[in-house]
Design goal:
The complex is a heterodimer of chains A (about 650) and B (about 450).
Chain A (H helix, E strand, L loop, with lengths): L10 E10 L22 E5 L13 H8 L3 E5 L20 H13 L3 E2 L2 E2 L1 E5 L9 E9 L2 E4 L2 E12 L3 E5 L3 E5 L6 E7 L6 H16 L11 E9 L5 E6 L4 H25 L11 E2 L10 H8 L3 E7 L16 H11 L6 E2 L10 H11 L6 E7 L1 H16 L8 E5 L5 E6 L6 E3 L6 E2 L2 H8 L6 H12 L3 H9 L3 H10 L4 H17 L9 H12 L8 H9 L6 H7 L7 H14 L1 H7 L3 H13 L5 H23 L1
Chain B lengths: L7 H10 L6 E6 L2 E7 L10 E6 L4 E5 L3 E8 L20 E6 L6 E3 L6 E3 L3 H7 L8 E6 L10 H16 L4 E5 L5 H11 L6 E5 L12 H14 L4 E7 L7 E5 L3 E3 L8 E3 L6 E4 L2 E4 L23 E5 L7 H8 L4 E6 L10 H9 L3 E6 L12 H9 L2 E2 L5 H14 L3 H9 L18
Parallel strand pairs in B: 6-9, 6-10, 10-11, 11-12, 18-19, 19-20, 20-21
Antiparallel strand pairs in B: 1-2, 1-5, 2-3, 3-4, 7-8, 12-13, 13-16, 14-15, 16-17
Classes of the chains: A alpha+beta (about 650), B alpha/beta (about 450).
Chain lengths: ~650, ~450
Amino acid sequence: MKSYDSKELDVKVGLEIHQQLATQHKLFCKCPTLQSAEVSPGSLFSRRLRPSRSEIGEIDPAARFEFAKNRTIKYHGRLDSVCLVEADEEPPHSLNEEALEIGLLVALSLGSHIVDEIHIMRKIVIDGSNTGGFQRTVLIARGGELKIGRHSIKIQDISIEEDAARLLNESDELREFELDRLCTPLIEISTEPMSCTPEEVKDVALAIGRLLRSTKRVARGIGTIRQDVNISVAGGPVVEVKGVQQIELIEKILNYEVSRQLALKKLANELAKRDITELKLGPIIDLTNCFHSTNSTLIKKILGSSKEIKGIRVNRFKGLFNFESESGFRLGRELAEMARFHGLGGIFHSDELPQYGISEHEVQTVRKTLHTEEHDAFFLAAGDPKVLVFALNALQERLQLVVIGAPAETRATTPDGTTKYMRPKPGAARMYPETDLLPIEIQQTLLSKLKRSVPQPWEKQLANYSSRYGLSPTQAQKIFDSEDASLFEEIARLTAIAPSIVAATITETMKDLSRRGLNMERLSSAIIIELFTSLDKGLFAKEAISEILAVIGNGKANDIGEAISLLQLHQLETGELQQILEDVFSKNIGIVQDKREAAFSILMGMIMAKSRGRADGALVSTLLKKKLTEFLATSDQVRR
Amino acid sequence: MELPGYRGRSQQLLRSSNVAVGDLVQVRVRNNAYKGTLLPRYEYADDHHIAIKLANGYNIGISTNNIVLVKRIRSGKAPRLVQTPLSSIDNKLPRIAVISTGGTIASRIDYRTGGVVPAVSAADLHSLMPELNNEVRVESEEILNISSENVRPKHWTLMAQTVEKQVATGMNGVVITHGTDTMGYSAAALSFALLGVPIPVIFVGSQRSSDRPSSDANLNLVGAARVASQASFSGVYVAMHIGLGDDLLAVHLGTRTRKNHTSRRDAFQSVNSEIAATVKDKLIEENKLRLPRRGSASDFQARSKFDDRVALVKYYPALDPDLFEFLIQRRIKGIIIEGTGLGHISADLHKAIKTAIDSGIVVGMTSQCLWGRVRMTVYDTGRDLLKIGVIPLEDMLAETALVKMMWVLGNYKRPEEIVSTLVDNLAGEITLRSPLRVGSK
């Protein structure tokens, strides 16, 4: 992947790693930290969140917009993992001490300054992902550093916070969430802004992930670790990109975001060249009448659904909506994204019109109505009267920021590694104290106790791992980094199977099966454990592992027992095996006579193929070797 | 120098450093330094930490043991509440008075300090309830700013007199914001004091603090304002959530409602009575309770006296008869007993109760079952108590009976009048018929 030069462009990247903790209970109640991929049937309750009173008078367009949309939020949940606290119907219980301890352990291992007295805060989020309209968070430590090879990464803050509810689906009127994940303890580690390559950033994320896993007290599995990336280019404002679930995407996102910010910077430079330091925009003007006899099917459709069309003049902006950077980025796209965020279908701008069936005549009428001069541009949008003005105001505000380049904002990641507008960047004002709980003094006695259990550095743990289980360093690292490390450890504890076989199955075989398109959800930890305990009992030969998992994965069998009978895999008795051996041997006596000892591997392959995984390779090898030696000895004797 | 909440070591340190709350300060500790705004210390906090708000919004406490130096970087500005200008409100709209007494419903948090400040100006209220701007004109009056556990009978008098005054100015309705803990008592008290009030008087509170976006305050307040301005009935009510969703509001009879949960937004329930009305969006739907209609303000007079020499005694198995002796000594004039079942109290106490009655104390019986009616002719115990002179109070809530006793003793002097008023249904507090189904029971 071609990537930018972080030094030359002065790219600064800060990482925020969020990792779920493996605590027994949630952060502020005694609900278990259960999570299922399912959606609970029926909704428990619904809510309307509004900007809290404290925010009135402050400009928080996202909060006000959410409220203006009059959206209802519906919550689903299971009665065994959701209580009144998650519903925000009961004050929070005391902070989960287990979570605090894990957080302090991590802080100690990073050499951070632990806060003397921690204060639980509320961070306002009114998109419904938190039932109360805020996320509880507590800063437990600042500073510290992480050594990665020659580099030393500076840590900014370490906080413990509650996870948000899972978004199930959303429409203009309704948002639905599943509550099981809500209030699960998270640790957030943020780094100071770093000036390094995308690859190095990825390494930092990986290293922090490893540090967290080395405590053995963090949750594993998909979605348990997420990173946010803060990016600024050439001293510009910081753009926060939220929710990078896969570490592999970090490089892609960084490249995309840097090129996006650069493109906006170039546009700003272009404006500077035109001597525009402040963008002048006209008022919002209704243009519905300009289209009363339109032939555009698109416009007809819009007007047919009782929507209005309004537009805004942009002074001296001609050609700049289509201003394109080398990377193919255009401002038009950025604005369309913003329009969609605010509930509109998109925008039309003067650089692309006439088009979409809109005639030159109509464009002229619009120009006249908006009073544009020769070098002026305009854009228009259609929508429900309720949201249209609000959205256009937001677009106006956004457009005014083009003179500074990429504005500070929060963006979301998309699965293809790009980013899209999510909301304005929250400021410090969105944080206020959790008035239901008292601050907590961190006791020195607790810290001294925890200091004794600070986990060993990752490299050391890895070395121990590889020697304890007899794994190669590469294999040990693969397992250690995988989501299934605890599964591996459990199997190693439960069975006498060589750990390298278990490791190979968990890493390579599973990856291979997933590539073959099998339903990996069917291959649960319980199935994998059963697989190895059955193998340990000698119910089948290890050569059949892949085949067994395949029939479970494709739904032909539901458990190991079924798979064994389906594949007729019952381990062959020594007698049966001997019979196959004799059979293969006699049919291929020519090869034996010809190749003598070298015939071993050929015959071995034939026998294994014939026994279709029902024979233990080691046993076949012993029997075959014996047979071969005896046969050659006898035939030599005969010849003599 | 302003250092609210600080004392002892931390106060000394801050004083000698010459800094005040609100200042941007640098705090140097042994091997680190923090920059932030000095915060006030919360009440009952220890004396060896100072609290600051960092630039990222987090608050932290720093131990005075670790502090090397506190230095002011910049003086703080006094916090200023942003007053939303009152947009022009159509003066043909109905007028309501919002009387605030305290509680969290009509207050907001000051971000800088984390403290709660009241927000009671009409402009504030309009900005809190933008959906009402085309429906009502709000006028506000703050008469108290206390938690509801601190509301005393004298405050009921103040509330009743304030309503009386507002009625005289031709208000279309009154909303009283109140802490929820004792809102049931206050609503019952005003139900009696404002008997015959010609407009709706709606008590409203919030269970979930109004500083949270999920607060129930807005639905409650908006609904209460709608009922006050638009309902065709009059009288004293409590408006609070039904269920956990933010869509349905109950209007409870002031004499029939009770806080039945510590924290849920639907904590208030009507006991032994249907809900008087429900509000969904703009629709006020009345149940068939034959509520009084709106009337003319000209001949309305409040009777707002309460005699607080009254006790509520909940029976429990170890209840000491001497308690009644103590009450007699304290010159208590009325006792409401919250008895068991149909209206009973252990025979061991009958003698003490008889002494109380003989000394002129009025004793009424309610049931700690909450639901149902007392009936004291069924068992010997009940019959004995009747014979002693205990007055059965039908299906009245114990709290309502207590408040009614205070009001009756404050406004009637002759014993027979006291008793007959006590058992008479004045404000929906007693029904003589027990329907098969009432509310959720």
